[in-house]
# Entry
Amino acid sequence: MPNDVVTLTPVILSGGSGTRLWPLSRPEMPKQFLPLTGEDTMLRLTLARTVGMSNAAPPIIIANWAHADLLEKQVPGDSPLILEPSARNTAPAIALAALAVEDPSAALLVMPSDHVIADLAAFHRAIQTALPLVAEGWLVTLGIAPSGPETGFGYIALGRELGDGAQQVDRFVEKPDRAKAEAMLAAGNHVWNAGIFLFRADAYLAALGQFQPDMLASATAAYRQGRRDGRFLYPDPESFAACPSDSIDYAVMEQSDRVGCVPVDMGWSDVGSWDVLHSIADKDEDGNAAGVHATLIAARNCLVRSDGPRISLIGVEDLIVVATEGEVMIVPRGQSQMVKKAAEAAAAR
# Structure
């Protein structure tokens, strides 16, 4: 299939609050603006993945209006910055980006700002595999080769071949229980849903008009009536607030019959919890991941993170301890999904 897509515009979704990594990640400084996996922030690492892509335009970043100053500091160059006046989930946010590109036939590479991709070459190859389908108007998602029966991700069931390295999506599967996840792995032809998408801007807007016309109308009004200030775009608050709130998965991808998937093994992680962060961190011979403000004696398989107070763990196993800005959080490893409840309780104080 010929690749007729002229330009590739990365679209980086940076509006999340990151409550599952509380207390380090907070509404005023969510995880995408933090250096969680290295010296650079998650957002800047995501931006770095767009360097070297063929025919790539400057990335479009979509974020919360309250993070304008953070964006100015962390996003160099002339990348357009779209600031959402309210949170309406991913489908309306992507609509704003699709409306913002000058060339409606441009391919949009939509990706979250807070993921880890270790194998950059495999990521770029997957994009090139997807582009011929994108040129033909398909909505394409990247599927992650599963490494185990993970229950924290949605899955994609793959159907017929669409070309070298791509398959049609048979169906999307909600986050499964353990038994269902094991059954899908045993059956094969299932991948994790990474939330990374490629499609032409006009193809996405057409699908949105077909399946979510009210959403498209509100997003279009918000964009056209928005205010521009340099590289910032401020969509009209009233129009955007009227936009139905829904994810791209539910609003579009699960509705369309022209959805393809490119399976890829690229060392991907969504860094969605402290447990995940422990799993991908550099660890010592006892399985501990600890910073300079930690002392561990006869401790095993722990994660310790502190921005000042020294944390001493003695004779314990499987703990996650985080201390920052007057908050101390301790949770057993394997139960860090409960951290979101602590973040909600802290916000209510």
